[in-house]
Amino acid sequence: MAFKFIDGGVCAAKGYKASGIHCGIRKNKSKRDLALIVSECRATAAAIYTLNLVKGAPIYVTKANIADGFAQAVICNSGNANTCNANGIEIAEAMCELVAKHTDIKANDVIVASTGVIAQPLSVEPIANGMQQLVDSLAVDSKVAAEAIMTTDTKLKEVAVSFKIDGKECRIGGIAKGSGMIHPNMATMLVFLTSDVAISAEMLKTALKEVTDDTFNMISIDGDTSTNDMVSLMANGLAGNAEITEKNSAYKAFKKALYEVTVKLCKMIAADGEGATKLLECKVSGAKTTKAAKVSAKSVICSSLLKAAMFGADANCGRVLCALGYSGADIDVTKVDVSLESEAGRVDVCKNGVGILFSEEDAKKVLLCSEIVIDIALNDGKKSATAWGCDLTYDYVKINGDYRT
């Protein structure tokens, strides 16, 4: 299937507008802290949520609101997670009611999300005071919404693709935030995806789950699983294709495009991990099963020792092998080959589970680049998987040492 990356983020697809303002949740007035995304018509909707038993109040409200498979808007605040608050559900519901009050969208057609500090009281007052401005500033402008959901992120994250179904141009776009507390499954990660494809709620949910298993659930920044993780997807059908109701060629085209969008966002999130200087991509091939490949890749990308070695540009294959050894994956460690690769070249560091001689100078050049591939061949089957993460730096500790205060 042919597709191309385009500009526009969540506003690339037909019928979507977005806005982002500073309403007063965050003390820094230069930081936007409230975002809104709306579709001009009701859309099929699906979402994936954190597996943490402690969940942000917005997750419970969103689950209830899209239980029928439909939504028309997303509202999200940053600066406060609305988690572990006695009146959290009430606040999340009030945010949906405010959308309804200022638009013609029903409160139960609103996806609501929050990100920021946990267990801090959240007042609905600044949100209420800012709603008219938020609605009035709706435009085909994805960037302001992307800015408004950022916390410790240093870079705005948006992407969109264009492709065809039934000869009709279709689009999928998204924005994301995510920097710390990112660990399978998902992360302090909020991702809002939009599409103009006509697809049933059931097929939308299936596609999102299948793609998320291979993308967002393959990221780890620090091994902590957040309380507020959410990936949501709305599809309003304005592209004009025949509605996708089964796993046919149209479904495959939609899923492929969705995969490309999510992989791009995954890399953006991982590269912008708190304090990170390098994007790490662990590619595992030759596994007996997909599960073994995924478990292996995740284990390596989650290893604090491996992450520290990548920060120090130290080609220590022992840390890769160690992570594979305790992963629990069904692998034969005597067959493992490991190579490290970047734009500076490629260096083989392990063959058949044994470290081999290589040029430390060449390895250093490879590992000093900002994007590094850890290529692992298990040589025991035909399945593969990829995971994404970042290096572990001094700044990670600095950022999280006083995150709340």
Give the gist of this structure.
By secondary structure, the chain is an alpha+beta fold. 31% of the residues lie in helices and 30% in strands.
Keywords:
2 domains; 405 residues; Ubiquitin-like (UB roll); 9-stranded mixed sheet; 30% strand; 11 helices; L-amino peptidase D-ALA esterase/amidase; alpha+beta
- Sketch the topology as an H/E string, one letter per element: EEEHEHEHHEEEHEHEHHHEEEHEEH
Low-confidence segments, given as residue ranges, are 181-187
Name of the CATH first level of the largest domain:
Alpha Beta
Overall pLDDT confidence:
92
Q: What overall form do the CA principal axes indicate?
A: globular
Radius of gyration (Å): 21 Å
Ends apart, CA distance between termini: 49 Å
Second rung of CATH, namely the architecture of the largest domain: 4-Layer Sandwich
Give the tally of structural domains. 2
| CATH-derived topology of the largest domain | L-amino peptidase D-ALA esterase/amidase
Kindly state the percentage of residues in helix.
25-40%
How would you sum up the major sheet? 9 strands, mixed
How many helices?
A: 11
Structural class: alpha+beta
The total of beta strands comes to 15
Strand content bin = 25-35%
Annotated CATH homologous superfamily of the largest domain: L-amino peptidase D-ALA esterase/amidase
Description:
By secondary structure, the protein is α+β, with helices and mostly antiparallel strands. It has 2 domains: 3-271, L-amino peptidase D-ALA esterase/amidase (4-Layer Sandwich), CATH 3.60.70; 279-401, ArgJ beta chain, C-terminal domain (Ubiquitin-like (UB roll), Roll), CATH 3.10.20.340. It has 11 helices and 15 strands. It has helices at residues 57-65, 88-102, 125-136, 142-148, 201-214, 249-271, 290-302, 304-311, 317-325, 360-367, 394-401; strands at 3-6, 16-21, 34-49, 70-80, 110-117, 157-165, 168-182, 187-195, 230-235, 279-287, 337-342, 345-351, 354-355, 371-377, 383-390. The strands form 2 sheets. Strands 1, 2, 3, 4, 5, 6, 7, 8 and 9 form a 9-stranded mixed sheet that branches. Helix 5 (201-214) packs across helix 6 (249-271) and helix 7 (290-302) crosses helix 9 (317-325). It is globular. Residues 181-187 have low confidence and may be disordered.
